[in-house]
Amino acid sequence: MKILLFLILLFTLNLSATPAFSEFFEKQRIAMLLIDPNTGAIVDANNKASRFYGYSREELKKMKIQDINAFTKEQVEKEMNEARNQERDYFIFNHKLKNGEVRTVEVRSTPYIFEDKTLLLSIIQDLSEYRIKQDDLFHFQGMLEEAIEESRAEIDETQKKRDQLIFGFVSFLILSIFILLFLIYKLQKARVYLREAKSLAEESNRSKSDFLANMSHEIRTPMNAIIGLSELLGDTDLDSKQKDFLRKIDGSSKMLLRILNDVLDYSKIEAKKLEIEEKSFEIENVFSQLRILFVEKAMQKEVELYFCMKKDLPSVLVGDELRLEQVLTNLLSNAIKFTDSGMVILKVELKEKIDSNRVLLEFSVEDSGIGMTKDQLDRLFKPFTQADNTITRKFGGSGLGLSISSSIVEAMGGKIRVESVLDVGSRFYFEIELDVLSWGGCFYSIEKDPYKVLIVDDVEISREVLANILERFGCKHDGASDGFEAIDMIKIADREDEPYDFILMDYKMPKMDGKETIKMISQMHKDGELKYSSSSIMMFSACAKEDIGVDDIKIDLFLPKPITSSTLFDAFSNIKKGIVKKDHIEHKDNPMDLSGISILLFEDNPINQEVTSMMLQKVGAKIEIANDGKEGVEKFLEGRDRYDIILMDIQMPQMSGYEAALKIREVNKKIPIVALTAAAMVEDREKALESGMNDHIGKPINSKELYSKIAKLCNKEISIKEDKKEDSEILLLNREYVEDNLEEKKEIDRLYKMMSSSLEKQYANIVQDLDSNPEEAERLIHSLKGSSGSLGLDRLQDICKKINTLQKRDEPIGDDLKNELKEVLEKTKKALEKELKKE
Questions:
Q1: Diameter of the chain by CA atoms?
Q2: Collapsing DSSP states into helix, strand and coil, what is residue 350?
Q3: Is residue 54 left, alpha or beta, with left meaning phi > 0 and alpha meaning psi from -120 to 50?
Q4: Range 43-82 burial, b when 16+ CB lie within 10 A, else e
Q5: Which of 280, 343, 586, 664 has the most neighbouring CB atoms within 10 Å?
């Protein structure tokens, strides 16, 4: 209570007059110090403090509290900070007097504003000699009253009438000060909690980024393998069916790879760095890609899949086709996954024609699946969660797709909404505005009178989808809901001399299925009931052709659902000919040629040097090699005018690629520099750009991407096949990949011999080094990862990637990985030996 009363009166004096406080401070019978909490310097001391410590006031003003306090310097600073931050105000210390004696003292400290500076006002009581007695308090109160009376005497007589108001104001001010001090204390606490929460969040984001970076390496390898094999297979002789399969594999894998890269870069979405491109595209192409992705999956579950696109839609739009595909891919994948029977419908509608150059479109995916409860809907768009999070859940998935899709749609200016009823189904939909490039209608034309088509299907939405497509083609059409109605309509058309050119027949229908209906039509022709020759019949179904068995019926073509404009157009074209697709794209095909371009390559791995050099020499480029960053910088400085572009590995001895790029930029700001590295995340690209590089190419190197970027940076026009990717399936030895990039058999065999020799010598003890020499092992693993990838030694590259990831994170490498590395090394050696023995 004594200290509390003292502080209240102290604040009153402080607010009244500084001279009064100074006189009050000097005359106190309690030892008092003013201390600078930032340095510990004693700003002032009263007479009682001088007598207590044995120093004069001037001596004390030249000292620091650390000179008096017997505790450690760190502890004194810590407790000064606690007093300044009002975390504590009571302390017990051992203070040293001038005569060397140590006294135990009680210290009360509180922040005090003195001449616009925050100081600590400390009251010291000697616990070893006395406590403040009751009469001290009376004396203390008397002195305060005298000080107050002296202050009042100086006030003009006219102010006496306002004493009551002033007293109330002062009381309110004192109360406000204490409230403010309390709020400041709470605010400081909140800041501490906020800092801790921020630190935890940042650590979580770092962990997630590390996970995404590692997953990027792991997933890119098999996906690039599928793309690479598709490209290689496309250069061989294939029949039409094989080409169709290959087109589907190639299109699906490329789309999936692009989507995977975006998913793995989820941190970009969280950081609000998601970019939406503005390029022209056709919705029909989007539907075609989605059909390739999901037709087999829907057929396996016998789910009816429908793509509905109204005829009043614009033909060419401007927006981000890939992002739109990514969202629809996720919604369709979920719809089919959660639907065991019934149908899934993808629909796009024109909601509003804002003007001739802009429209509002609604995209929706509706299913007849399991539906969701309200609780499941509430957590549906949260990242890393699913509607069913139990360990016995039936359906897999990361729980990330809908969160990413929601972010993409919001970046496009829309919002995904959902309607769902448990055990009935769900409907996901969103509206986005898009610019219109062309209202030119369908890119298909029929070079004769419009066809007359009969659609036979018991499902209304199926007839509606096909009718919309036929109207866009300019065809006449009728619809029948079952086989018997179809037979009657065929007879009527025959009698009226307007037979159908095409009959589109669904397989699964009530009363009479498609096969029985087709058999009846054939019998009618045999019996002469129809005077016109047979119409072209196409059967379509959600079931696979092999499951239906169509060998016993006469059809011109079988079409799996969903049917799109392009698949139906191709069917018409194959059967009737005479129809063509309009091509609105001009193709420019210049020869692939980089002759005249001089390149300086920074690469420490001999095999990677050979592979990259041969890729570039194949197209006429001139190559000069530097074995590490330091040598590369020296070569550039010696002949900086000789080179048109620099290709630079990142991890090299002597000097890293980042350091080398910075040194080159000190003397030359213009020469293009391209990073060559296995690190392919957004952060890696950004780091390369920050060091002064112009671009970034991932390893194993994609030769076509490399050519394209060199040509662009050196202002040289070439044409290159798109999306040629590196790597292959997880094979021991993928010679096809190497031949695609290098072509010359002798050179490939020479590189294989070099690798075989390196495995026997340079990498002979790599497994043992993982335990005995970790630093050397990390260098060897990184080198082996790059060279094995360049030579198509996929399994060896794969295990090296896994180990290298653990090394970078300073995590232990288990015996299972060590044994796998040992096994793969032996198998790779044998595979190389076997390959080199071939003639």
A1: 134
A2: strand
A3: left
A4: bbbbebbbebbebeeeebeeeebbebbeeeeeebbebbee
A5: 664
